[in-house]
Specification:
By secondary structure, this protein is mainly alpha-helical. Helices cover 67% and strands 0% of the residues. Helix 2 runs parallel beside helix 4. The chain is elongated and about 100 Å long.
């Protein structure tokens, strides 16, 4: 588990440094720094906007009594994208913006749900799920818990008050 993380912590900064140097050679040092600052400012504004909208949708789903699965995945992607925007560099900024922008986030959502589901299953050690299949369900209607009226077949049509016939 720590191998890929350690590898990423070593390789990503080297890639970022290489890209920053290449961009700096093409457009100059000051424009490169200003571009990185501008991306950070735009990314922060976008992060706040999308995070607030997702939080509002999550609260609305909970208010309706629904499981906010899509909103939770959106929140996780936005949070991860925001963390990448805090990392200085062009590559992490691009990936962070892709995770925050709604169209690209929607395209990545299915993969993220599978990844997070697999991660959660591994994290929990699949406790209690051996040999079981989990189905996703949705409530489409409710039944009333009020008592049903007495069946009309128990009453004689001539008896208005429902009293038994006396012969």
């Amino acid at each position: 588990m720590f191998g890929p993380i350690l590898l990423a912590l070593l390789i990503v900064p080297l890639i970022e440094l290489y890209v920053i140097i290449q961009v700096g050679e093409q457009i100059g040092v000051l424009p490169t720094i200003l571009t990185l600052i501008a991306i950070s400012v735009i990314g922060t504004w976008l992060l706040k906007r999308e995070g607030s909208a997702t939080w509002t949708r999550l609260q609305a789903a909970l208010g309706r009594g629904e499981m906010p699965a899509n909103e939770v995945v959106d929140g996780a992607l936005i949070l991860f994208g925001g963390a990448l925007l805090l990392t200085p560099g062009f590559v992490t900024d691009i990936v962070g913006l892709l995770l925050i922008l709604p169209p690209t986030r929607a395209a990545l959502k299915g993969s993220a749900r599978r990844f997070l589901g697999g991660w959660a299953a591994r994290r929990m050690g699949r406790a209690g799920t051996a040999g079981r299949i989990t189905y996703e369900t949705r409530v489409t209607g409710e039944r009333s818990s009020r008592p049903t009226p007495t069946a009309p077949s128990l009453q004689h049509p001539d008896d208005e008050d429902g009293s038994p016939d006396t012969g």
